[in-house]
Amino acid sequence: MAKTIITQVTDDIDGTKNAETVAFSLGRDEYTIDLGSKNRAKLHAALKPYIEAATKVSKRSGANGASARSGRSKPSSPDPTTVRAWASESGMDVSSRGRISKAVMDAYLAAKS
Q: Counting C-beta atoms within 10 Å of the first and last residue's C-beta, which end of the chain has fewer, N or C?
């Protein structure tokens, strides 16, 4: 016996068919809502002045996989291959794989600043 399952997404506000899921966040809370084109346009129009005045923050994956959202930007980590090469050339003991020790990373950052 064959089955066909059809999932139809409807607008959470007015029940309009063929809605799309919209994700947004406010403060520390994240939300999703299914909206048809009319209500998506209303949401975008309502948020437009705030979006235009805001600073866009990109999502970054944290240690536990959760996205980190902060107004402060975090400096990016140096490329591990570059750090290993520098450490080897500097006579430091560094493994070719795995985590780079804090001592090696601190020495690299100190030498580059």
A: N
Other residues' Cβ atoms within 10 Å of the Cβ of residue 28 = 6
Helix-helix angle 102-112:80-89, to 10 degrees:
80
Task: Evaluate whether 94 touches 87 at the Cβ level (below 8 Å).
Answer: yes
Residue type, 87: A
- What span, in angstroms and rounded, lies between the C-alpha atoms of 86 and 97? 15
- Digits of tens for pLDDT over the chain (113 positions)? 888 988 889 999 999 999 999 998 988 899 999 999 999 999 999 999 998 998 888 766 554 545 444 555 556 778 888 888 888 889 988 888 888 888 898 899 898 88
d(CA 65, CA 55): 23
